[in-house]
Write a structure and sequence with these properties.
Number of domains: 1
Protein name: DUF6894 domain-containing protein
InterPro entries: DUF6894
Number of helices: 3
Number of strands: 4
Strand content: 25-35%
Organism: Sphingomonas aurantiaca
Strand order of the largest sheet: 2-1-3-4
Radius of gyration: 15 Å
Pfam families: DUF6894
Shape: elongated
Length: about 80
């Protein structure tokens, strides 16, 4: 099975690169979405700081297979909530 590497750029704190043996590119895409969801869940408050995360998925030869961009943006209606709390 091929190895795919899942690297998150610009996360603070840094998230280490993960390598996974997966049967296909389709399986790597599914894994990437699940992994991103887990990271968002676990990073919670940090994620809502507004920084963009970029997940780059590459193969064993370090060729980029695909990229996922993940970001959060507060709506104008919620910006005033910070002042009330």
């Amino acid at each position: 099975m091929p190895i795919y590497y899942f690297e998150i750029a610009d996360a603070n704190p840094a998230i280490p690169c993960v390598g996974e043996n997966l049967p296909s590119l389709a399986a790597a895409r599914c894994f990437a979405l699940k992994y991103a969801g887990l990271l968002i869940r676990d990073q919670g408050e940090v994620f809502w700081g507004g920084e963009e995360w970029v997940m780059t998925v590459s193969d064993v030869n370090h060729l980029t297979m695909f990229t996922i961009m993940i970001c959060s943006t507060a709506a104008p209606a919620t910006l005033n909530l910070k002042m009330l709390i």
